[in-house]
Every structure is written in C-alpha cells, then in structure tokens.
What does this fold into?
Amino acid sequence: MLRKSGLTGFKAKEMVYCIVVTMFADDTTVYLTENGKFSAKFNTEDTEIIPIGSKEYRENILVTCKIKDSQECLPDNIEIAKDGKAMRILGVWVGNDTDEHAIWSPILNKIKNALQRWEKWHPTIEGHKIIIQCTVGSMLQYLMTAQGMPKDIEDLLTK
It folds into this structure.
C-alpha cells in the first residue's frame, strides 16, 4: 500500500536516502514534503502535523490549514503544531523552535522524586551506585540518545 501511495518522503542535507515512513507497533509517522503527491489515506482522529520548512511556509499551513495551496483544507480534528509546541513521536519530542528545558523538566522531576523516595531507606554507597544506574540511568538513556541533552541539564544531573 505504501509503495503505491506516491509518497515521496523527506530528505535532510546529511541523509543519503529519503525517509518516507517510520512504523513502530501502532504508531506510524509519514514524512511529506510541500511538493509531494500522494493518495494515501490517514486515520484523521490520531493525525498530528508538524510542518517542516521555512517560517513563512509553516505559518501559511497554520493559517490556511493546507499543506499546499492547491489542496482542500485539512479536517478540523487534525492538530497542526505551532512553532514552540513539541509533539511526541516514539518517545522523542519533535517540533519547530521548541524549548528543550520544557522537554527535560518532567524527567528531571521524576528523577528527583525517585531519588527522594530511595533516600528514605538510607542506602550505602554501593546502594547509591545501584540506584543511580537502575533508576536515573534508565530514565535518561533513551531520551538522551534519541533527543540529545542540553549542556546545562547535563551539568545539573552531574551534581
């Protein structure tokens, strides 16, 4: 079905191939370009759009609710991300002009709460090591790898 859809995908500067779709369990992310022609059908109840391109292009999509001027308006129930709003795709926060500190804030709070709970048990030095490896490490590993971590957040966690 995807092969016959006419989706052209998206290619960033450093990419060798165009990325058309990523799928994991019941999540599907489709990458469309302004010039792309497609005949794919989407479940509009779960569809979110993150415009990629110039600021003018992104603002035009928000105002007209069209990917291209020649298309019909997108259905009202499709959410289009404004600049500054991050949307979660497979555990990673994606968007234009997003605040990285807002992305990391919930995780930092989760780590702080977990460490406070464990501290009530007065762990030994070896216990602290295990807690940090199992709790803090597991909370950070995926997002740090997939999203990257701002230097000031890294400095805060090092303390």
Q: What stands out?
A: The first helix runs from residue 55 to 64. DSSP finds four helices and six strands in the chain. The chain has a mean pLDDT of 87. The first strand starts at residue 21 and ends at 24.
